[in-house]
User: Fold these one by one.
Assistant:
Number 1:
Amino acid sequence: MPYVAVDGKLREECGVLGLYGRGLDVARLGYFGLFALQHRGQESAGLAVTNGKEIKAHKGLGLVAEVFTEGDIASLSAIDAHIAVGHVRYSTAGGGGLANSQPLVASHLRGHVALAHNGNLVNSDKLREELEGQGAIFHTTSDTEVILSLMARYRQSGNENALVQTLTHVQGAYSLALGTDTELIGVRDPYGFRPLCLGQIGNEGYVLASESAAIDALGGEFLRDIQPGEIVVIDERGARFRRFAESPVSACVFEYIYFARNDSTIDGLNVYRARQELGRQLAKEHPVAADIVISVPDSGTPAALGYAAAANLPYAEGLVKNRYVGRTFIEPGQALRELKVRLKLTANTEVIAGKRVVMVDDSIVRGTTTQILVKLLRQAGASEVHVRVSCPPYVSPCYFGIDTPSSAELVAARCGVQEMCALLGADSLGFLSLVGTLAALSPAQAPACVSCFTGVYPMSIAKLKTEADLNRKADDWGDVRG
């Protein structure tokens, strides 16, 4: 069963990192780069390095700081590698466990391969069955191993061509960082579901990363996003780009709403600015008479600042986040769930007491955490609590790399706004419309995938819900007072 963290938020599958550069300590740089991507996955971390003759890897369960010791980094650095591939993971396909931790490493007659994958293949089960029927043996339950197995089928044509041929078979979301004995290769799927960008480090070094914040953290210079349907191959000659497929672009809208770091820029749009604009749009659509605006930190903070500015209301730190709780996960039982939320977030009574409060969050998934937070605010003396959400209701599961609960667990899939408002114990509840969401994200170069709000998917998915569920549109939702 996938983990859901104590904040009750959705979880992205992972972050990928690649480094190339002779003379660079790619192992140590990779270690620090993974720290910058830690928010994208806290279940496991791994790093593989190669010097062209041998490949060495270290991975484990837990946070980057838990998985790697100074001795581990020194051991990886000792082989004088010039290529590194790193990964931080949440499990969506194949489940958790050390065996499914990445990068996956394989050896064959033509050399070594290390592969890190962000996303989810929607046809992996079918491909695995076909490959097993042809004699393939799998060591993990991860869909990423399907890619490696397909590449082995075409290995005689060389790594780049083998990868291109492999990609004609896979469907779904994938941003890949792949290291061979001589090359670092990056791939972004034709729809562009998951982000991937390229930077330069030093005079001749390169960084591939899920987010530009990782490039910045390593002191690199952002060059550009990898385009949907594009491969970048980096070797001693530099970086070259190759288009391998064309599809309607559908970049994940939740990268801007929640997943990515505030300081990242994806497809030409800064995440912090996008979140502020979402909040401004939300204030225009759902104004309310109030005294202060607060956020559910941290991803809800830019939207709350945008809301406060547009509504001409003061912003205050009404909920204080404990940043040292670590990987605390929800367990069955309402009492324990509420205790864990209280460990993570506490109400600032001095700010809240006697106030009409607008609480801005980036999304509502199950609704249990929001319900607890509304209760905390009332206990702190709030006279009114108005919940505002900087995206439309989340009504449909995602099959493209997000750890989404089943539709039965999505509160917006089974409740209308009026019922949700009563369930949360709020005085009013308002979601940003789909039109408002897309307007806020319009500066981005890539159109957004909004399947989670509409139930309409950009490709055929075997796991699709019933036709009745698909016909339920997010724009039918609006503001309601409880």
Number 2:
Amino acid sequence: MPEAIIRPYEEKMVSSALLEIPRNTYQRSLNPERVKRISQSFDERIANEPKVSLRDGHYVVFDGQHVIAARVDHNSGEELPIRCKVYSDLTDKEEASLFANQTGFGVPPSIGMKLRARVFAGDPEACGFLKATEQVGLRIDYGQHKGRKRLACIAAALTEYRKLGPEKYQEAMKMILDGWDGDPDSLRAETVTGVCRFVDLYRGEYDPKRAVKRFRTVDPLKIYRDGKAMGDNLPGYKKYLYQVLMIYNGASKKAALPMKF
């Protein structure tokens, strides 16, 4: 993770009409329902000041867009001056990094929005994870919407990328893709975790071609359903790793791998 960026700021009144939201780069979409909730109970005495970057003569908001919209809504939809924390000399990459790492009292960005901002900021881990995922033929969905060949379980996949490293992570994700052709149910967190841990534990012992062939014979939901059905018989990820091992072994005695966990 990048180190925290420490910059002095100036509190100043800025017209809401001048405040820009960089949604095409790292900011999330505005949530109208959240804006209404904030507006209905708005109290200026306890409201947080939006954090703004004064860059190239523009006031760019990197934290507080919902509070800004709620203030305008609370003001009968009319623009108004808002007290902001204004930072100078930030680059757009630094703004994105601050957005991804904000720790205020508002709703924190989702894991998908954090990753998008970190990629925009040029964070090496985030960019490496994105590259490794796209190279095998999958697309990271920052909005975390399930779909064919769309990786929505970002937190689980990023955890495995960190644990396994790019090479083993790609090996596991390629097997999932080749085995189930990007079926959304094959890209659930439980399946991604189970297959990644299988690769980590049995690499050098298992046959990737056999794994793909065996995956094609079962519904991708089997790993999730059968794992859940195990209850507490195996802790955490091991119940999903067990399902992957059972699918790989099948009825073969010659190709079967031992249970090592």
